[in-house]
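OP here, attaching both records as promised.
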Amino acid sequence: MSTNRYRVLLLSVLLGVAWLPEAGAQVPAQSACHNAAASRTAIYFVNGVTTTRDEARLNGGKLELEFLSKLPTMAPAVQAMCHLFFLNINPTSGAVKDFLEAGQQRLGLTSTTFWQGLEGAGLATSGVIAQVLQRPISNANQIDDETIQRHATAFREQIASPTCRRVLVVPHSQGNLYSNASYNRLLGQAPTPPTGTVKIVGVATPADVVQGNGLYRTSSTDLLISGIRLVLRTTLPANTNWGISPLLLSPAYSGGHSFIGYLTAEPSRTQILTDMEFSLIALASVNPC
């Protein structure tokens, strides 16, 4: 069995579901997609730190599955749109580089300041933070401007004629920092897209804002974001949790930080989907072309 196939099977067992990407998810079809006149919305997943391309695809598939499962109960304006799912990759370069990059992005901190602050706060204990702190710290990596531009360009191409699609971005972890930067890049370059054609729904965000007055969910049981918040006090506060979930005890769920965990445990799962619904209702009122 290949490594990737094993990972998919392992995650499926941990989640307690029978969903496998190659098997196809049994969810209601989008009737609006059969209507050529129906408006289209592009929904992008943006992965976080240390996420491989295969893992990002798995996370994006989980997002699509959960959204389409709930779509029949969403507002009529949302059901009337055809929703197309895409992946905007935030390339991974390994745990140390990714976390240092996130640290520099967030308020312009150097790697030394960022990780010494975490260590000074008594967070060098266990899990992913300890794993990173136990490794050599190099100079801070530069923000990946190429990735920011690539994401902004993808959004612009969706919005512009003849595609004329609205855009909803659902980033996880460091993906929130890239999505905020891409949003600013998109609105800062001519031609400026119509106001309100892009919305962000953040998940497990280390940022202090969601651009475009977007919504977000960060769990009080997310050890990584809680640790960052101790050092960077302006980090957005926790506003959801994973309840009493066995997922929190599994290393596969990264100390309450994994995207699949957020979309499996309650109430975070329902709240994220509701945030997406509210954002799509707002998008439905905007004409991108």
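Record two, same layout:
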Amino acid sequence: MDSEKLCNDVKEFALSTGAYLKTEQAVLKKKNIELKGTRNYVTYIDKEAENRLVEGLSRLLPEAGFLTEEETVGFEQKEFTWIIDPLDGTTNYVHGNTPFSVSIALMKGKEIILGTVYDPVAEQMYCATGAGKVFLNNIPLKVSSHSTLVNGYIGFGIPYSLDERGEQVLRNTMKQFRKCSLRIKGSAALEICYVAAGISDAYFHSGLSPWDVAAGAFILQCAGGKCTDFSGGDNYIFNKELVASNGAIHREIMETIIQDNSTFIRQ
């Protein structure tokens, strides 16, 4: 498999899907917006964008299966699996806001081997095919070197349903407001990429799905960053929890915000 050629082809599908999203956002009517749950929106646009991606990616790699948000195609375990989110940041999107993105990852067995995240409004294409082979619009990426929460630039998200653990993480986060800059942008895939690009120093979120995380986490790791779940383990794609960082600030995020000096597993 020629990973570089495949990545270029995937970027073309991300571009065309992003153009569709951008055009449709301008004409989206409130009557076309559905609720899957509290604050959890979906539109015909999500579904159509996913259909387009599935159709295109099926031509690229006919033997691959799919893991998708809108379930336009059933999941079937195969050697290769596309993990796709046709519209990450739907809440921003339906309110006429940004950012939002198209996220595409390719998994071989249990390992991600390709990741692409595209912001159609900013026209920013993040992509990676391996360690050091990670770019933003063809410019190589590298994480920041900031090593402390003091003056850190930290992204985070609040899940649709806050359980007791999530509420504790939120309370711990609030304690850091005087120490660092905290931001909620609303697109997990992009916010992980911001860490890869050295824009942010870290990002954390619970209640995530594989399609929110897979591409961005791979891009971040290829840029020299670190991803764990809230226990410090490596089940961050399927365990609904993610701490993504430049690596240097990871321990302090874990000990101060995620686990509050309690059960952090030292690596």
